[in-house]
Amino acid sequence: MVVLINFLLPQEGVRHEEPDTTLYVNDREVGKGTLYVTESLLSWVSGTTGQGFSLEYPNISLHAISRDQQLHPHQYLYVMVDAKLDPADMQELLPIDARSEGNDEKDDDDESETPMTEMRFVPENSNSLDAMFQAMSQCQALHPDPQEMNKNFTAEEDIYEDAEDDVFKCWEAETDAMPYILASDEAYNQNGADTDEAMDIEAGQFEDAEEDP
User: Beta partners for 118?
Assistant: First the structure.
């Protein structure tokens, strides 16, 4: 995740733009601004300070719509980021009179083994949630997780290896059956040789019979 002090509004590949969207970071309200869902980044810019940030899609592990107002008073687009938002950076997104002094935002969670930040984007028009979600899904599909691709590639390799093993087993089974086939051929050849010897003996008997008179 990158926090930009001089934020440039996205100009290309914008799939959805949602104004009047309130941002909550780890349950803290940051402010109201505009959410931009682009093909390369998910961006939000504050309508008060003009500051904003952009998220790269590979760093977004989950996005979903939440309509349960028992968990939150508003319906929102939930985004889980595989990174820890620096409280000092978040201060830049707040109006000056709302910024706190020092590092009050730091807590024991900063020492967590798996850094993670939760974001909630609450549009003023809740009917836009479906369009926001669909746009995010389409854009995130353009940036597949390399780890997932490696897993799929490994799975395909395993499938080919299993197929080769099956072919090898079939070849072994056919090879095991070969002695029976060869035995039959040998028996056939042996019977054929016996028949030829019998015919030669009979022919000799006829010749002896012709010579006796």
Answer: 80
